[in-house]
Amino acid sequence: MSTPKTLFDKVWDAHVIRQVKDGPDVLFIDRHFIHEVTSPVAFLGLEGRGATVLYPDRTFATADHNTPTLNQHLPVADPMSANQLAALERNAKTYGISHWGLGHIKNGIVHVVGPENGITLPGMTIVCGDSHTSTHGAFGAIAFGIGTSEVEMVLATQCIMQPKPKKMRITVNGKPGKAVLPKDVILYIISQTSASGATGYFVEYAGEVFENMTMEGRMTVCNMTIEMGARGGMIAPDQTTLDYLKGRELSPKGEQWDKLVPYWESLKTDEGATFDLDLTFDAADIEPQITYGTNPGLGTGVTHQIPTADSVKDGSASYKKSLQYMGFQENESMIGKPVDFVFLGSCTNGRIEDFRAFASIVKGRQKADNITAWLVPGSHIVEKQIQEEGILDILTQAGFELRQPGCSACLAMNEDKVPAGKYAVSTSNRNFEGRQGPGARTLLASPLVAAAAAVTGVVTDPREFLN
Amino acid sequence: MAYDKFTILRSSAVPMPIENVDTDQIIPARFLKATERKGFGDNLFRDWRYNNDNSPKADFVLNDPTYSGKILVGGKNFGSGSSREHAAWAIYDYGFRCVVSSFFADIFQANSINVGILPVRVSPEFLEKIFAAIEADPKTELEVNLPAQTITLLATGESESFAINEYKKHNLTNGYDDIDYLLSMKEEIGAFAETRPF
Question: Is A45 on the interface with B (CB under 8 A)?
Answer without folding.
Answer: yes
